[in-house]
Amino acid sequence: MSIVGLLTFANFNDVKAQDAPNAEGTEQIEATDEAVAEEAVVATEEAETVAAAADDTKSFHQMLKEKYIQGGAGWMTPVLLCLIFGMALIIERILYLNMASTNVKKLLEGIEDNVKGGNYEGAKELCRNTRGPVASIFYQGLDRVDQGLENVEKAVTSYGGVQMARLENNLTWIGLFIALAPSFGFLGTVVGMVQAFDDIETAGDISPTVVAGGMKVALLTTIFGLITAIILQIFYNYILTKIESLVDQMEDGSISLMDILVKYHK
Questions:
Q1: Mind listing the pLDDT tens digit for each residue in 85-123?
Q2: This prediction's pTM
Q3: Which DSSP symbol is given to 130?
Q4: In sequence order, which ranges of the chain are alpha helices (DSSP H)?
Q5: Phi and psi for 248 in degrees, rounded to 5?
């Protein structure tokens, strides 16, 4: 019996000694699995964050395209055409007015040097080679210097009015597009409201899902119409400022030209 008991105890110790490493290995495997799972969760969260950031950072062109489609091409297209045609005319006017700018002081100094020596042809040639409405007005005045200073003054005044009309060319059309853009937007708003009430009447319910489509059309067309009008109005006022500056140059230059002719004309 004692021998059997010793053998049984020895076998029990061997089994216990073998189970201990196995338990430790199992714990290590479980710890490794948990670490891998945590890394997978972190990676998934990072991927979701990147995807959300990508959605939030849509390009302006994509957002504009989405809103254009949501607003309805039938009402957004007229507003877009107002913006395109209005900006085309604005760019043309800005380029024209920038090219029409003249260094009036330098031009008057050159004219005075020529007139002082009686070289009126040289003064006219200087005006021909100088761009801008001021030089054109000076040329018309110098071209009639032989007819007397009174005729020179009349020519300068008359041709100044012609040049001013040229500076204001196409402003009427720009003003028309400024007025049309919000008008189309408000018209889209009214149509959208009518559509919303039709949907309410058809569904017999005033739930948000019923009226959302019509209200979206109404709001988006109004927003785009007002934005278009604001953009065009800003550039329109800039053009008016440029025209006023050029008109002041023409008036001051014309007075200075008459002073030069009175001083040196014989």
A1: 999 999 999 999 998 888 888 998 898 888 888 888 888
A2: 0.69
A3: S
A4: 2-56, 60-71, 73-100, 104-116, 120-128, 133-143, 149-167, 171-203, 208-264
A5: -60, -40
